[in-house]
Design a protein that fits this description.
2 copies of one chain form a homodimer.
Chain A (H helix, E strand, L loop, with lengths): L1 E5 L3 E6 L4 E7 L1 H9 L4 E9 L4 H7 L4 E2 L3 E4 L5 E7 L6 E7 L19 E4 L4 H10 L5 E5 L2 H6 L1 H10 L2 E5 H8 L4 H10 L4 E5 L5 E5 L3 E4 L13 H15 L5 H18 L6 H5 L2 H15 L6
Parallel strand pairs in A: 1-4, 1-9, 2-7, 4-5, 4-6, 9-10, 10-11, 11-12
Antiparallel strand pairs in A: 2-3, 7-8, 12-13, 13-14
């Protein structure tokens, strides 16, 4: 199986209440690809500029990540993002966004990639997300993610992209805004009414909710003692979810539930380091251990 | 079994973004007693003034609630609280608090009540909470709840009350403040280090976390389509938790986990109406149905 992960590879500047990092490897596709590669073979489709550091390129060279789709644009500048977290680590301010090569990136698939088993289109222009889905018509699972910027600026195209996908992953506050509904359950239902097949609402440290016509699933957050940097956790969640799903034989409701818990598990590792740092050393066995711990932490019986 | 529930019975004025109610039955002990009475026999220990309306008294007259400990103070005024919820229903402003008879209430047990099987001391003066625990020395389970007011004003006495109890239930933001720790897991551990036996951190719509020396349990929130009024949900949680625990033969880790889910379940009903309104019509069978639904919503397997 080969999961196509398309989105941004970027250079971040991150400030938490405890530390500041410049020149941190970032971008939605970066964390998603690293997370997914714990479960399946990944094809990374993204663009960087000539200024993209060799060390960052080395970091992305992983046995299960194919970099043939990582285009270095001649004379281009890599996208950059700067953000500052508040004391509670749950909210942040974006200090700047430099689009760079992503201002007019035209994704082109390397030969053979049109036959991919899955697609994760990380947050980006919804028109591009629709094109990406059309590029891999045989994909078994396709998920799009989005952010406030596109809800505000391209709502109709975004809804088209969401309708074309099998899953949409979205932050809680963005789900409320997109649906115009105050409760998560209602927002999820409104998005289903709008034509999406299944909605994953990311609740940050509180876990995730999954809403489809057939199932409703809620998973609490994994209890972490220390959060170093939340950047990329949502993408790590999406990558873990899609990576696991791409790796299973049958995609049924139970597999989807397990995929959500795997996504949460990988995301819980992601926040233990700056940017994707922790994902770079993470082993599948650590993920399995924490997944089992997750079940032990959440399990209860009906009868006494 | 008889669970002693001690705290405030009050008259509330509540404003949500959608509705406003004056003269609503309120108070921490009210919601806790109603919730607990779904599972066990309850003894309500509280004080009201001569102005306490007959209709509210009638509402509290339930088959499983003994009102012998509800003292009407001659010439006294019932405690009053006014609050306004913000748009997201997760945060609120207290508009006023009138202590009334609770300014110098001296709880006295009706004959025989010193032999009670459990005690829930709702948020109140920690010195009083300590006295209440001493009044029922044979109680099998004792829980105290608290609020920011006592963390700020009576931290040492509060820690004494917490150390004397079997469980402390506390809101997330208050747990962080009391422990001086940013993460729930760390705050819980810090409270254990400070001498508490087990900590329940109430996460509002996101559920609850339980931390003791032997166990760690996280339960997500029940997905509700509509929240009418969150007032009393924390007390309904505590009452449901203690009521269920008081009703079981053996209090082990599995029973405690079930009690937390029962607490969350009753709290999810509480927010469907103004104040304790919904609890007044709630039947045990409805609770059991939603409890089973809760398990169906959260269950996942380890193996595919």
């Amino acid at each position: 199986m080969s999961l196509l992960v398309a989105g941004w590879v970027a250079i971040d500047e991150i400030e938490t209440p405890f530390e500041r990092r410049e020149g941190s490897l970032g971008g939605s596709a970066t964390c998603a690809a690293l997370a997914a590669s714990l479960f399946t073979d990944v094809r990374l489709l993204a663009a960087v500029g000539e200024d993209f550091p060799e060390t960052m390129l080395r970091a992305l060279e992983r046995p299960r990540i194919d970099l043939a789709g990582l285009e270095v644009i001649e004379g281009g500048r890599t996208s950059r993002w700067g953000g500052r977290y508040h004391y509670d680590m749950n909210s942040r301010d974006t200090l700047y966004t430099v689009l760079g090569v992503n201002e007019r990136w035209e994704p082109r698939l390397p030969p053979g990639w049109e036959v991919s088993s899955g697609l994760f289109a990380a947050a980006g222009d919804p028109v591009l997300q629709q094109r990406l889905m059309a590029m891999v018509p045989g994909a078994r699972v396709r998920m799009v993610d989005t952010i406030k910027f596109f809800i505000d600026g391209a709502r109709d195209e975004l809804m088209k992209a969401i309708r074309a996908a099998d899953f949409v992953s979205i932050n809680e506050s963005e789900a409320r805004e997109l649906a115009g509904m105050p409760s998560i359950a209602r927002a999820g239902r409104a998005l289903l009414d709008g034509g999406s097949k299944a909605v994953i609402v990311k609740l940050g440290e509180y876990g995730a909710a999954y809403i489809s016509g057939e199932d409703y699933f809620v998973a609490p957050g994994y209890p972490l003692e220390e959060v170093v940097d939340p950047t990329g956790a949502g993408d790590a969640f999406a990558g873990g979810f899609m990576g696991y799903l791409d790796s299973v034989g049958v995609i049924d409701q139970q597999a989807i539930r397990r995929a959500i818990v795997y996504g949460s598990t990988v995301a819980s590792f992601c926040v233990e380091g700056f940017g994707p740092e922790r994902l770079l050393t993470l082993e599948r066995e650590e993920v399995e251990q924490r997944y089992r711990q997750f079940r032990a932490l959440t399990h209860f019986e009906v009868e006494g």
